[in-house]
Each structure stands twice: as structure tokens, then as C-alpha cells.
Design brief:
Layout lengths: L1 H8 L4 E7 L3 H11 L7 E7 L6 H8 L4 E4 L5 H11 L5 E5 L3 E3 L3 H10 L4 E10 L2 E7 L2 E3 L5 E3 L13 E2 L7 E5 H7 L11 H11 L3 E12 L7 H18 L2 H6 L1 H18 L1 H16 L1 H12 L6 H5 L14 H25 L3
Parallel strand pairs: 1-2, 1-4, 2-3, 6-12
Antiparallel strand pairs: 4-11, 5-12, 6-7, 6-11, 8-9, 10-12
């Protein structure tokens, strides 16, 4: 215990970055918990994407210790966080959603876990549902072989996932990254604007040889609700395809074509169920990739330049399971999962037998 206390006292400076776009109603709950952390030296930076709800004025009046950076336009989640990274002075950079609350030891535990594991580059919190704190929002994110990312442990009891472990991806709602790692792999890809950028960052980190770790003692609460507008459908589908084109070698993508096609079938099924606007969004995701192929290949070149490990190292972290509960009805999810899980499991075994990744 004494050694741990000494280590806590020596923790380096951290910067907590919160992106705000008309989130006054959330910041009123979030900021009081963030500015009262049990931590030595840290700063809080709010990057504002042109809010008009009085949130900036509220922060400046109630929390003068919080630095506000005003963007003239909405840069999205990816771009605004990158602005926050540029204006931060901490050795650890911590991203937090405005629609969260955090426990007093949240920051300390997140940074301490990274300090104690030199091979880890990112750490993510145990995130519980704000409106139902006895259940989990996510304990790190799970990436399936289809490329679809889901919340790990969503809806399960809050006392589960009580051990630290390596996870495929951090949750963008609450995670930390070492400054040295960020400088190595780069910040969020601003092509994404929003959604899937946390998965992309985690995959790039894995390719560069860094682990993402889950820290159950770092607890946050998230006002989570599954929302999937037609615009978000476009962004999610485009960004998923973009990440996989960036991260994996061409032979690996060919070997993964069956699970990727399965993912496309699921995405198309969802779009068709939701109606014409979602179908258009799905089509637009393909068109964007084709029209911007030069940008895609340049992003791929930058990502491949980070490579320190083979694709097999990254693929070992991905899952043959795909949890669809919360996306479709419980009955439909059970039927789909009963087919998907064995199919993906079998394909993993085939690839391990015949493909050298």
C-alpha cells in the first residue's frame, strides 16, 4: 500500500479534454465531478464547437479554472479533440464525453494503470449507465471480425468485469492516452468527423505495438442511449470501411472477406429495416470511399508506416462474437447471434490453418 501511495503522489500532470456542442444540461452534472478529482496536478480543457446554449458562459462563470477553447466552426468530435490535444500540457491526455459523471478516483486510477504498464498506450474506464448505475454501458469496446464495434458488457451487472485486462478498443466516452503514444500514432483521424474514431485510434495503436487496457477501478457514468440516425449510419459505415482499408494488409483483407461480407449483409439488413434514408446513407458510404480514394490511400500509407506488428497480432484481439442486443429486438438478436458466432468462429479456425497473416 505504501509503495502505491508514493506512486500516486508522483503521478505526472494530466489534461482532461471535453468536447462541447450545446451540452449545457450535461456539463452542469459533469464538470463538478471533473474538477474535484483526487489527483495532484491536472488541467481541464473544454473545446467548444460553436455552442449557442450559454454553455461557454456557464463554464466561464462557474468554473474559472477550466480553460475554454472556442472553435469558429463545428469540427466534430475528432477535430475538436485534436484541438484539445494541441492546447494541452499534460503528459497524459484524457478524453471525456460531456454527458458523463466521474467518481473522485476516476482520473487517478486511469493514469496509474498506464504508469504501471509501460507496454500499454491507452486505458479506458469502467463506464456504467448514468440512469441505471447497477448496469454496464461499456468496459472497453469489442471489435468483431466483421469490423462492427459494440459496447463490451452492455446491460450486464455493474459488478462484472472487475479485473484489469487488455481490450480491443477504448471507449471514446472516457479514456486516457500517453502523450508519447499520441505523438507517435497521431490523434483522431479528422476524416471521420465523429463515430468509430475511438476504434480507429485503438487499431492504429495496436498496429504500432501498444496495448489498450481496461481499468475497472476508474469508474464513470454515461447518459447512454442507442441512437442511430441516417447521418450517423453514413458516418459509421464509411468510417468502419475506412479503418479496415487503412489498418490491414491486402492479403489479410482478402482472407477476411467472408466475415466482412457478413458485416455488410447485417448493415444492409438494418438499413432496409429503417427505410429509404438509411439505404441512401449506406450507398453514400461506398460512394464517399470511391470519390475520395486518393485520401483513403494516403491515410492507409500513414497508418501502414506505424506498423510494428503483423496483422495476426491485431486480429487476435478481435472477436468472433457480435452482440446485437440493443440494436435489434432481443428475439431477433438471439437468432442472428446463433448463426453469426459459429460462422465467425469457424472462419477464424480456417484462417489460422491455411493463412499466414
Amino acid at each position: 500500500m505504501c509503495n502505491r501511495l508514493v506512486k500516486v503522489m508522483e503521478l505526472p500532470k494530466a489534461t482532461v479534454i471535453i468536447v462541447n456542442t450545446n451540452e449545457l444540461h450535461h456539463l452542469e452534472k459533469c464538470l463538478p465531478t471533473v474538477v474535484n478529482q483526487r489527483y495532484g496536478e491536472y488541467e481541464v480543457v473544454v473545446v467548444d464547437n460553436g455552442s449557442t446554449d450559454g454553455s461557454v458562459e456557464y463554464i466561464e462563470a462557474e468554473f474559472p479554472q477550466v480553460r475554454v477553447i472556442r472553435n469558429s466552426t463545428n469540427l466534430g468530435y475528432a477535430g475538436a479533440n485534436n484541438v484539445g490535444f494541441q492546447h494541452s500540457s499534460g503528459e497524459y491526455l484524457v478524453v471525456l464525453n460531456p454527458d458523463t459523471k466521474v467518481e473522485a478516483g476516476w482520473l487517478q486510477e486511469l493514469v496509474l494503470a498506464l504508469e504501471n504498464d509501460p507496454s500499454a498506450g491507452l486505458a479506458t474506464s469502467k463506464i456504467l449507465l448514468m440512469d441505471d448505475s447497477q448496469h454496464i454501458n461499456t468496459c472497453g469496446n469489442q471489435i468483431s471480425l466483421t469490423g462492427i464495434t459494440v459496447c463490451r458488457g452492455l446491460g450486464q451487472s455493474a459488478d462484472m468485469y472487475d479485473q484489469p485486462e487488455v481490450v480491443p478498443a477504448v471507449s471514446g466516452a472516457a479514456f486516457a492516452i500517453k502523450r508519447a503514444v499520441l505523438e507517435h500514432i497521431g490523434g483522431f483521424d479528422e476524416l471521420y468527423f465523429m463515430t468509430y474514431e475511438d476504434t480507429d485510434l485503438s487499431l492504429r495503436a495496436a498496429l504500432a505495438g501498444y496495448k489498450c487496457i481496461y481499468v475497472p477501478t476508474s469508474v464513470a457514468y454515461h447518459k447512454y442511449a442507442f441512437r442511430f440516425s441516417a447521418q450517423k449510419c453514413f458516418l459509421e459505415e464509411r468510417n468502419r470501411l475506412l479503418s479496415w482499408l487503412k489498418v490491414f494488409r491486402w492479403p489479410t483483407l482478402i482472407a477476411l472477406s467472408p466475415p466482412l461480407i457478413l458485416g455488410e449483409m447485417l448493415a444492409w439488413g438494418y438499413a432496409l429495416m429503417r427505410g429509404p434514408a438509411y439505404v441512401r446513407s449506406k450507398i453514400q458510404s461506398y460512394l464517399w470511399i470511391m470519390r475520395n480514394w486518393r485520401q483513403v490511400t494516403e491515410a492507409r500509407r500513414r497508418t501502414q508506416a506505424l506498423r510494428q506488428v503483423q496483422d495476426r497480432h491485431v486480429l487476435r484481439q478481435l472477436s468472433h462474437e457480435l452482440t446485437l442486443t440493443g440494436v435489434v429486438s432481443q428475439r431477433v438478436a438471439a437468432i442472428l447471434e446463433a448463426f453469426i458466432h459459429p460462422a465467425l468462429w469457424a472462419w477464424v479456425r480456417v484462417c489460422q490453418a491455411v493463412v499466414v497473416w
